[in-house]
Amino acid sequence: MPDVTLIRNGLVVEASGAFRADITYSDGVISQVAQRADPASCDRVIDAEGLLVIPGGIDPHTHFDWHEGDDRVEDDFTHAGRAAIAGGITSHIDFAFQRPGGTLKDAIEEWHGKARDAAVIDYGFHPTVVELNEGQLDEVPALVENGYSTFKVFMVGEGWSLDDRALAELIRACRDSGARVSVHAENGLVQLLADELVDQGKTGPEWFPISRPWPTETEATYRALSHARTLRAPLYVVHMTSGHAVAALAEAHSLGEPVHGETCIQYLVLTDEVYKSGDFDLVSQFICSPPIRSQAEQDALWAAIRAGTISVVGSDHAPFGLDNRRAGKDDFRRIPNGVGPIEHLRPLLWDRGVRTGKINPSEFVALTATNAARLFGLAPKKGSLAPGADADIVLWDPEKSVVVEHATLFSASDHSLFDGWEITGQPRMTISRGEVVYEDGVLRATPGRGRYLHRARVFSSPETPYIDEVSYV
Ligand code: DUC
Ligand code: ZN
Ligand code: ZN
Fold it and tell me: Cα(337)–Cα(143) distance, rounded to whole angstroms?
């Protein structure tokens, strides 16, 4: 007889709604969601009285154990994964960067090497294309077959961005294999602006956001969406930070196009005031691209979430250490771009989104789990609490408050953007494939327990064209 665990007396919150139900699971899989389950027939009972029972979070935008040249993210798959668990996240999709001259298959193998013995939560990879040398387009079908059904491209960054032709070729190759491209949408003007600012002696980190104004993001977003429109292909825009870029996405939605947008938690809770303290060590902690923008842009992002234009909130977890950031003390262009908010993603979205009435608990679940599962080929095993799904379950306490103290966090980062913030809404228990990996501050997750997630195709060509024009294919 399988060992059965019962979670009872909780309020189950799914993307589709909230209802009182008991949940049983065995062998790491949810077996029953019922109004009442019989405790006598279960081996273990977890009482969720007063708590919400929600699906484990899915963060489709992470950079664990990422290093480029001298720049190195402080969190490996174990530390970042533990931070994720403590924040109620049980799956993530990381970016596997192609090396210049290398293949995408090599990149995937390199990233499996980072994750295999270290991962504590389940993981997938987005092959991240930095150049189309011989053969990358030919690699796409086999990669998709092996579970890598979403790819990533940078539209800016010397040595790792694709030009329009290469981007369009990849968008089309992915479309034809049932895959989708995600874009980091900023344009090359940011490099010109940065060089000019530094030439004028404006070298401090406070100039970084000035070098990356919202039109540079909006133009690139519109261009990538246009490529997808021309090719009748899907597209996903990562870490959107500007209402102007979001307007381009909304226009595409109005035309019925299969395109989607994500923002990240830092853009929903911080404003560009963070760049104004004059203290290098403080200001440089907030250097990420695109930069943190104005209150007006933050408001526009919340409006886009409420309107359903943005469907995912991720973390872009990439915490570079303070010493690493100090490499850019005299030249902001040398500060590595990245922040590390994964532990606070869900608590902050609850605190600033649900508690303020901007979103409801089901929308919270959709934004942090269900939509990502659907968009990234993980449904129905992940992102919901239906029978047959993995028992990735979080007991969420909507009233529990925590004051962030960097020293007590599970991330290995030497700082936290949210030190001293009081955040209400926290996980009390995180269960991953039936294993209790976190309970009231205590973590039990052995490195290597995380499993690779083979993801399904994410797109099939629409039978009827969604724009009423000639096909350029
Ligand atoms: N932006 C960041 O801030 N960090 C990682 C990569 C990116 O696109
Ligand atoms: Zn990016
Ligand atoms: Zn990123």
Answer: 28
The secondary structure of 150-190, three-state, reads EEEEECCCCCCECCHHHHHHHHHHHHHHCCEEEEECCCCHH
pLDDT beneath 70, residues of the chain = 462-473
Strand partners, 4: 26
Q: What is the pLDDT of residue 186?
A: 98
Distance 270 CA to ligand 2 centre (A): 17
pLDDT for residue 207: 98
Provide the phi-psi class of 219: left if phi over 0, else alpha when psi is between -120 and 50, else beta.
alpha
**pLDDT in the model for residue 134:** 77
- Are 319 and 291 in contact by the 8 Å Cβ rule? The answer is no
Q: Which of 289, 324, 342 for a ligand 1 pocket mutation test, highest count of atoms within 8 Å of Cβ?
A: 289
User: What is the 97 CA–ligand 1 centroid distance (Å)?
Assistant: 13
Give the DSSP H/E element, type plus range, for residue 218.
Answer: helix 214-230
Residue with tokens 């007063």: 50
In which residue are the tokens 């004028």 written? 200
Q: What is the pLDDT of residues 75-94, one digit of tens each?
A: 999 999 999 999 999 999 99
Question: Cα 304 to the chain's mean position, in Å?
Answer: 17
* Packing angle of the helix pair 214-230, 164-177 (nearest 10 deg): 50
Q: What is the DSSP letter of 135?
A: T
- Under 8 Å between Cβ of 49 and 409: no
The number of residues making up the chain comes to 473
Task: Report the separation in Å between the CA atom of 315 and the middle of ligand 3, taken as the mean of its atom positions.
Answer: 8
What confidence score (pLDDT) does residue 462 get? 60
Between CA 232 and CA 172 the distance in angstroms is 8
pLDDT tens figures, 343-359:
999 999 999 999 999 99
Residue labelled with tokens 């959709």? 366
Of all ligands present, the nearest one to the C-alpha of 220 is 2
Locate 23 and state its tokens: 């949940």
Q: How many CB atoms lie within 10 A of CB 341?
A: 26
